[in-house]
Amino acid sequence: MTGLLSAADLDPDMLAEMFRLSESFLEVSSRRIPKVPALRGRTVVSLFYEDSTRTRLSFETAAKRLSADVMTFSVGTSSVNKGESVRDTIETIEAMGIDAIVVRHGCAGVPAQVAQWTDAAVVNAGDGAHEHPTQALLDCFTLQQRFGSLDGLRIAIVGDIRHSRVARSDVAMMSALGASVTLVAPATLMPPSLEGWPVATSSSLDDVAGDVDVVYLLRMQTERMGQHLMPSMREYTARFGLTARRAARMNPDAVILHPGPMNRGVEISGEVAELPNALVVDQVRNGVAVRMAVLWWLLGSGTELVPSVDSAVPTADVEDDRG
Amino acid sequence: MADTVLIRGATVVDQSGSRRADVRVGADGTIVEVGADLDPTGAEVVDASGAVVAPGLVDVHVHLRQPGKEEAETVETGARCAALGGYTAIVAMPNTTPAIDCAAVVREVLELGRTAPCDVHTSGAVTVGRGGEQLAPMAEMAALGVRLFTDDGAGVQDAGLMRRAMQYASDLGVTLAQHCEVDELAAGGHMHEGEWSSRLGIPGQPAEAEELMVARDLMLARMTGARVHFQHLSTAGSVELVRAARASGVQVTAEATTHHFTLTHAECASYSPLFKVAPPLRTDADVAAVRAGLADGSINAIATDHAPHTQEDKERPFEQAPPGMLGLETALALALTELDMPLEQLLAATSWFRPPSPASVTSMAARLHPVSPPTCACSTPPRRGWSTPPTPQVAVAIRPTPGARFGAGCATRCWPASSW
Amino acid sequence: MAERNRGLDDVVLVGLQTGGVPMAYRMAEALQRIDGADVPVGTLDVAFYRDDIGLRPVLPEAASDMPFDLAGLVVVLVDDVLFTGRTIRAALDALADHGRARSVQLAVMVDRGHRELPIRPDYVGKNLPTRRDEVVNVTDEGVDLGEMVK
């Protein structure tokens, strides 16, 4: 693995390893000094063309807890505003000597383009309506913590599937781990075609809420109203919002996830957000741990390297040193 | 030193059919005589046994980017691409800056084309500035030889205006050509809406965005009695609409591009903006329908929609990159290798056309030019013998072509008439 | 251990993942049996502190578990085999991130020599002279010394 562009880059075995690593990093994060020297001397660049303070902070916290140096390329104050192309930006920061680039862009496919222009590891932190693989990782890790496994889990993903990178990554990863996913949305907010998607669909949250282990609520954005996708926020909430009344009909063991930031009163009511089975805070905490796992996997684990590059020391000698 | 060239032993394919004949090329590069056993006295003799000699190809749809975007292409470089691909005449689209919407700009383009290595014609815009609001001075442009009017790059959205444009154009003996794309359905879409756009998270535009305008303009053509030409048809539904309308007597012609009969929307999975075109690459079924339309004559012409952009523009994010692909240098090879059509019919679609004829659309007398030297014989057998592309002799930085998918071995080396 | 620390009141055992962990638990059992003392056991994974990150594949064996505040405690690091000393160096760094112990001591079952760093064990089960290219394997049953399989 030389980068993480898509949820499909991780097969179930790699996901299991990633979750195991995430456990280790959760422990690190719980310490009084939540920092390890693992990536000392490595440089991670966060390149966010689209504002997302939460995701950027999560990645930067992860990098810092691994002792990597963090360069924040903030588009608002940079040469990008002066019309610099993505490629020129990449070549500029690469010349400074970097090991990983965390990219967020409003257009699908930009991380894949970036990966062609750099030798650094590229991590997709969200590209347009395409993918957000580390969000799927933290969602699945959170569910694995809660349920032990995703195998056989029934998951409803509710909301604006059409424009959701989170939904695309989650569908891929959750179903790869054995969960059965139902997409819940009006036809206007569904992707134009679901050919090849391993999902069931419904246009009624009321029909689905009582029969699932997980209700995953997507953020509903106001600008969709102007695109004739919903008549009003009010009507969205009436049909697809997780109200206290709907939440009360969920299984007692079922949980609620949300990628944040929440629109309280729109896709989730304020009181539902505070329920003990709403795992939003766990998701955020786990987000740092899984991003540490991803950065460590890409930059520190050496799993792409030959066992020893130091020919003076026999391989097994070094191995034995573990004892 | 011989002033003329005698091409001997080739198979000559033109409107009158296919036969073994010799061809004499005059000192000015045009064909002066075609016949059996021509007298070689005083001529430089070229042995073309096994090769096909056909009229120079005609492309009714190219973007030469001049004036306004000379770093992407110029009349000179575009014409050179055309000559390398075997074209002897091309028609420039009017979406330049400023748009080709009045006599002054028409004159500029024609003047630039005068020294180009192939004939350069230009189309004119239907509306001022291609803005879709006010008719452009078509008569003034027609007087300079413009025979094709289009707002290519965008369709004329206003049905009332399109109706008047058709009526006005029919008085002038010119043809209206339409880039069929209804803004309300296409806006914000960057590829074909369907399986791949859904998976890739790229906003799409449905086939209906094209078909709706095809249907509308067929009705308007029937209503006004005008002749309409549809540019780059890309969907099965469009092909069927044209087929049915022609059968019922509407005066309609249509073209298909090389990329619309060779590539599908699956190419967009690479996120490479090289595969972003307008109209977008469609489904397998659409590609099959376009091929069938060419085979049964529902689609009359093969065009390239040669649309160069700078490398920087084609390295932007898919959703921000401009649409367009190259085609002039590879079109003939792609047509020959990808289409299952008799050679005569295929060459007709790329040059002189069967009636109703887009060549007559542009009132270009089909001049017989040799396009096929022995090195790129397309007769024996047609799927072999293509050489890899020569080092581009053109100034343009990036050369995305539908041939990209086929790799080396698909490009033609058809020599332009001037190299004989 | 009890002698040196004048009792075991402030002593905790920290086993290094993975070989040192079962050993730490067995030592805790033994101390309970012999001394009646209840010595807490923690575990420590040092993967993220190693000095050969990037030189060879390094993956943590298991998350660390440190169920006590180290301040004021005597920590006895427990490992099965002491060799180059690099693991112990990493362990000292890792330990420091968990708190400031009063002192740190080192207990190993086997000291096979060939130190590359100035590190010396406080408690040794067995000194075992070896060649660098031999392999030492400590199990419940005892200590194996074998040729490295090349």
Describe the structure.
The complex is a heterotrimer of chains A (323), B (420) and C (150). A 5-stranded parallel β-sheet of chain A has the order 1-5-4-2-3, sandwiched between helices. In chain A, strands 8-7-6-9-10 form a 5-stranded parallel β-sheet. By secondary structure, chain A is an alpha/beta fold. In chain A, helix 5 (133-147) crosses helix 6 (165-176). Chain A has helices at 12-29, 53-65, 86-95, 110-116, 133-147, 165-176, 205-209, 233-240, 244-248, 270-273, 280-299, 315-320, and strands at residues 3-4, 43-48, 69-74, 100-105, 121-127, 154-158, 180-184, 199-202, 214-217, 255-257. Chain A folds into 2 domains: 3-132 and 283-299, Aspartate/ornithine carbamoyltransferase (Rossmann fold, 3-Layer(aba) Sandwich), CATH 3.40.50.1370; 134-280, Rossmann fold (3-Layer(aba) Sandwich). In chain A, helix 4 links the parallel strand 4 and strand 5. Chain B has 420 residues and is of the alpha/beta class. In chain B, strands 1, 2, 3, 4 and 5 form a 5-stranded mixed β-sheet that branches. Chain B is globular, with a radius of gyration of 21 Å. Chain C has 150 residues and is α/β, with parallel strands linked by helices. Chain C has one domain: Rossmann fold (3-Layer(aba) Sandwich), CATH 3.40.50.2020. Chain C is 19% helix and 29% strand. In chain C, the strands form 2 sheets. Chain C has a 5-stranded parallel β-sheet with strand order 2-1-3-4-5. In chain C, strand 1, helix 1 (20-35) and strand 2 (41-44) form a beta-alpha-beta unit. Chain A binds chain C through residues 17, 20-21, 23-24, 26-28, 31-33, 35-39, 66, 296, 300-303, 305-310, 314-318, 320-323, and chain C through 19, 45, 47-49, 52-60, 62-66, 79-81, 83-84, 86-87, 93-94, 97-99, 132-133, 135-136, 138, 148-150.
